[in-house]
Amino acid sequence: MENETFYFTLYQDQGHLKYVYFITILLEYVAILFLNISIILTVIKEKSLHEPMYIFISCLSINALYGTTGLFPRLSIDLLSDSHAISRPACFTQIYIIYTYSISELTILAVMAYDRYVAICRPLHYHSVMTARATGLLMAAAAFWPFFWMAFVVYLAARLPLCGRAITRLYCSTWSVARLSCVSTAVNNAFGLFVASTSVFLPSGFILFTYVRILIVCKRSSAEVRGKALQTCLPHIVTFVTYSIALFCDVLLSRYELSPVMNVVALIFSVEFLVVPPVLNPLMYGLTLAEMRKKNPFLMQSPKISVTFK
User: Fold this and answer.
1) Distance, CA of 167 to CA of 95 (rounded, Å)
2) Average pLDDT of 238-264?
3) Is the pTM of this model over 0.85?
């Protein structure tokens, strides 16, 4: 018999600390909304920013707003609630939102890496390659891929007959639900591995490949060219590295029974990829890219950050 309600076990026995956690989460969410909406509005308003690089940056901000809506509102409710229960449809909706966000983050970063590769390695052909049509197609592909494949992942997980209701995470995930299954999850695991390979490792490998090519070109270029290349690539590199580490650790730690100390580490990494990138990305791109900093009214008074090669 399928259970219609799940229960989060990590919210128990928080005492008055739950109010501290709630305020912290609320402030974090407000910061995410403020920073990312400011980036989106700046790109929309300023015609000089209607270029592929800035459009893709705004896509990252849109994705951050989308993904965090799958965590923060529900997390705030669970912190203050006494039951910590979530319905089956709401649980799988949360899974779909968070997982499509996490994969979309990588596909968007892969598209941005391609944009930087063309701009730095093929500068004379940039405008003929990165046309408005090509930019639109790349954006559509980055969004369609995770939304399409995650629909199948969630469908397979929703079909599993479950023998338990306790979820030992701060939010619903496919692995935490699969652990409650009464039957073998071999099909789910195999399909999940396929989706992970094509949606996580493939974009990550492509990003690494493009930056190897960019580094080779920069090595042969003048110091001025290297400085300009780093100025536009550094935010992307920082975003990719921090997000990849957090995502990898979350996936790795979530699949094993851990000691109490390691459970705390796993708990931190389980939300890090939903908490740090949505704040770090708009700050990195807003402060390090001169055009973005000049046009964003909320960052115009911020100190200039510049990076050059010696």
Assistant:
1) 13
2) 69
3) yes
